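Hi support team,

I submitted a single chain yesterday and got back a structure, but I'm not sure I'm reading the token output correctly. Could someone confirm the output below corresponds to the sequence I sent? I've pasted both exactly as they appear in my results page.

Thanks,
R.
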Amino acid sequence: MAAHGRPPRQDAAEEPDGIGRRRFLGYVVAASTLTVAASLGENALAPGEASAAVPSVPGPAEIYDLNDMLTHAALPTANLITIRIETDGTATFALPRAEVGQGITTSSAMLIAEELDLPLDRIRVTLADARPELLFNQITGGSNTTISTFTPIRVAAAVARGRLLRAAALQLGETVETLTAKAGAILSTATGRSLTYGELAEKAASVTTSQVAVTLKDSADFKVIGTPRSRLDARDAVTGRKQFAMDVKVPGALPAMVCRPPTINGTVRSVDNLAEVRAMPGITDVVPVSTGVAVRGRTFGQCIDAVRALKVTWGPGTAEGKSDATVLAELRRAELPLVVPPLDLLTKAVDERFTFHFASNSALEPNCAVADVREDSAEVWASLKNPVTAQEEIALKLGLPVPAVKVHVTEGGGSFGRKLFHDAAGEAAEISRAMGKPVRLMWHRTDDFRQGRTHPMSTSRVRATYALGEVLTYEQRHTSVATDFGHGLGEIITAQAARLPVGDLTFAETVFALTQQTPYHFGVVTQLLSETDKGFNTGSMRNIYSPNVRCAQELVVDELARRMGKDPYRFRREFLKDERGRAVLDKVAEVGRWGREMPAGTAQGIAIHPEYHAWVAILAEIDCRPETTGRRIPDAYTGPRVTKVVCAVDVGLAVNPRGLQAQMMGGIMDGIALTLSSSLHLDDGHFLEGSWDNYRYTRQWNTPPELEIVVMPPTSGEPGGAGELAVAGAAAAVACAYGRATGRMPKTFPINHDAPLGFEPKPTVPPIPASPTDGLDRAF
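Hi R., thanks for writing in. Yes, this is the structure output for that exact sequence:
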């Protein structure tokens, strides 16, 4: 059965004129060697069908979701994305997206290799500089990259293949029908002669841009797409050869850091010892900027010493005096009312409220950027998922025309939504202008945790009414500290609209409606968002709202099943709308041996999550016995341990199943952390956590020894979103397992948030700790 929001699809073997055989238009671009691009139209959308005793009307995200919107917004400029055949026989492609560890350079190369019949090792995928003409077609977010580029890249590669065949036919004096493309060469089946792509690159080029028709390969003929491949950059990553923003070498660019305020978004009032710090060894410049006081030195160690030596008088920040308790009280006051009252004589109700605390959006690579700002131009290097907005807003800030600002996209060491914002790039440009010199800006890890982006604190109030074995209504009121959507949808207009006093909530409401859904037939369903408190630096961290919304919903599903005397797995199966959902649910129940006998204090949990035309089901087993939760490790929270996870994922068509498995693994670790251990503690306007050593992300002793990822067989001819799919499902499955193991539904997340800290918070003045000397005191 097709997923809601897309037309029903069949495999190419069943439908010869399906996606694999459809004809498309592409372009041969005027260039010295063969350069090609895609031209695409739009497809109709229609919801799928389902039936239940008390069916639910499809929600907005089931008919048309955020991913659909991003894909359709990218279509008009698809023809501006080109593939070039070089004279050495390689194909080069500047991907207008950001590679931050998710493996999209590899999957994009696989698409080219498939349609062009060229070995993967002869394809060079780089990251495109900011290109304002692409409009909405250069944003990396919403698990949209593979979906939106799947057909354009294939069309462009198919155009190139066709052009090479025609050039070879002219060169060899044969008809195209006697020729075949294989492994980077055109072969004659009649004479055995051959020509390499490199030999044909210039001959296949065109002096004018023209439109041509192509037919894509049938999925039955795929030799690359759908096969597990290791990442093309894997060797460079593990040997240290891979280049990131901090590896960029710009003449004269020296390390720079910022002395930041003790509270969130505090301001500089005065600096008492500028001259003294400027005279410190290696320091070249010290200047106040909008975010603090910037220092530039010969080494980062010297910058750290200078930051620690600065004596700054600070003004108040945007969260002054606030704590977890005050923000929670604010959220409670902002909750939208529930509408359906429980009628005890006729119906019963599950009525619960869940709290989700702030979580850090820090990636493994600290926030960093390189900037060289001159009087009439600027050049910036950074890992950016939204480079067009970055370029436009940096140009505005510097008072320069947009073409005078060059923004280069580098590969990044993680993002999780963090790099949708150009905080470091904009700050580096501001510092470079103020100093009149190029800089290599790096945030300290403590800066990342205390002044960086966070997943906002929120509450989720849920009420579900039921009678006679059926769920009649489901209401969810999600209330969140405001999520900053100031990155927009890829360019400055939507970025500015998202910041308007009214526009920001409207923007958030739209994103919420286009991402959240209830996959069950629960009668009359309403899911609404309310926001409060714009004083925090928030972001679209891993699914935006989904981990919290799904976790709350799945816990209520477990409680409904318990009250109705039904097995949680079978209850879900009975009420699910979609056959794809039932298939992944059945698979994890089978592989994970759902319902097997387990010792007291341990249990299984199961959950399902649909998102962006993909489905995931996760079965988790947890150990909450005292001998496990009571383990002692210095300066650590051990707590319950997830001992086993089985994940079944259906993304329609998995371009690279091995890459998909890696994405699921990472998402599962995030989900475990969000449920059990990782959060930020807000106290008097600042976060107490200051580094990974006291932020409780999933540690090795809390990772499941047994982990199995099942990639389901293709259910369509197109890929669905997978970037963040497993996070919400894993968070929910672990929460449900914890509830069943302890006999208490968890309602505050992570479950350890109110436990003793287990670490000594780093001071806020100076804002960063001293560099370690030997690290031996941290060895176990």
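A quick pointer for reading it: The first strand starts at residue 23 and ends at 29. Let us know if anything else looks off.

Best,
Support desk
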